[in-house]
Design brief:
By secondary structure, this protein is of the alpha+beta class. It contains 7 helices and 20 strands. It folds into 3 domains: 84 residues, Uridine Diphospho-n-acetylenolpyruvylglucosamine Reductase, domain 2, CATH 3.30.43.10; 131 residues, Uridine Diphospho-n-acetylenolpyruvylglucosamine Reductase, domain 3, CATH 3.30.465; 84 residues, UDP-N-acetylenolpyruvoylglucosamine reductase, C-terminal domain (Uridine Diphospho-n-acetylenolpyruvylglucosamine Reductase, domain 1), CATH 3.90.78.10. The protein has a 5-stranded antiparallel β-sheet with strand order 6-7-15-11-12. It has a 4-stranded mixed β-sheet with strand order 1-2-5-3, with helices on one face. Strands 17-18-19 form a 3-stranded antiparallel β-sheet. The termini are close together.
Length: 311
């Protein structure tokens, strides 16, 4: 890993009372796969003011940064990451009720927390996130979804911060929502915006509709059809166009249980890879490549990764 943090910037980080800073922090502690080398500096910002100061200083010193949510759809390389890995803390983890069956949800709100809030308050539409791990920020960035729809369908506006620390509201219609992707405008100096929250619109539950029962059924179905426990990320590949899912294609290629080192294709759902205990990031990367190659040989279909690989 090439060092990217200037010593004067490092000194400022150490002195900052508004930030929680850990140098050479193993990313295996912050990803659900449990793999990944050290971040040069892992920084938690709990307030907008602290975040703004951080990105301003990073810009002044030319330090690269990237944002991490719960780490449920991320694969960090064994060499680690240069510069800053920024995590939004408790100050970004609140849900605020708004008129008209809408809420404002901070980027670090967990998807499960948002679903439970919606169910409790009789807000329909949460199904697009039901059973999906991670945070609201990650769900927005990856336009997370289920068979019920995708995150973009809930969004009214997204609140972002640019690399100069200024906040902007971006209307949903200005965002290019794709399958497991979203494209925001670029901020100053071509730095991407940081998502810090979103205004989400729901629908009132219909008469006689039990959102609690629907939520329980979704979770029960997922529990039966997907692996559970530690050492997991979300789906590794996007579903290609057509009738067969990535999981079905991997299964038909006979790859359930296939592994590289301690990284193994789940025997429950083939689009989930499991860390059996001592896997390295390199094992998962090699497994992704081999699975994609074998599926292409078997079906002629090329699979595209859904997990975000950071090297």
């Amino acid at each position: 890993m090439e060092k990217a943090i200037h010593r004067d910037f490092a000194a400022w980080l150490v002195k900052s009372k508004a930030l929680c800073v850990r140098f050479d922090e193993p990313m295996s502690r912050h990803t659900t796969l449990g793999v990944g080398g050290p971040a040069e500096a892992f920084v938690v910002a709990d307030t907008k003011k602290a975040l703004a100061q951080l990105v301003q200083k990073a810009g002044k010193f030319g330090c690269p940064w990237q944002v991490l949510g719960k780490g449920s759809n991320v694969l960090v390389g064994d060499e680690g990451l240069s510069g800053l890995v920024i995590k939004l803390g408790k100050g970004f983890g609140r849900i605020r009720a708004l008129p008209g069956n809408a809420v404002f949800a901070g980027a670090s709100v967990r998807s499960t927390t948002l679903c439970r809030y919606a169910v409790k308050n009789n807000l329909d539409g949460f199904q697009v996130l039901a059973g999906i791990p991670g945070t609201v920020g990650g769900a927005l960035w990856g336009n997370a979804g289920t068979s019920a729809g995708h995150m973009g369908q809930l969004v009214q506006q997204v609140l972002v911060m640019d690399s100069l620390g200024a906040e902007h509201k971006i209307e949903s219609g200005q965002i290019c929502w794709g399958y497991r992707s979203m494209a925001l405008p670029q901020g100053p100096a071509q730095k991407p915006f940081i998502i810090i929250g979103a205004w989400l619109g729901f629908c009132p539950a219909k008469k006689g509709q039990s959102l609690e029962k629907e939520y329980s059924l979704i979770l029960e179905t997922r529990k039966k059809n997907q692996p559970a426990g530690s050492g997991l990320a979300g789906c590794f590949f996007k579903n290609p166009p057509g009738s067969l899912s990535a999981g079905a294609l991997i299964d038909r290629a006979g790859l359930k249980g296939f592994g590289v080192g301690d990284a193994v294709v789940s025997s429950v759902h083939a689009n989930f890879f499991v860390n059996r205990g001592n896997a390295k990031a390199a094992d998962f990367i090699a497994l992704m490549e081999k699975v994609a190659q074998k599926v292409r040989q078997h079906s002629g279909i090329s699979l595209e990764p859904e997990v975000r690989v950071l090297l």
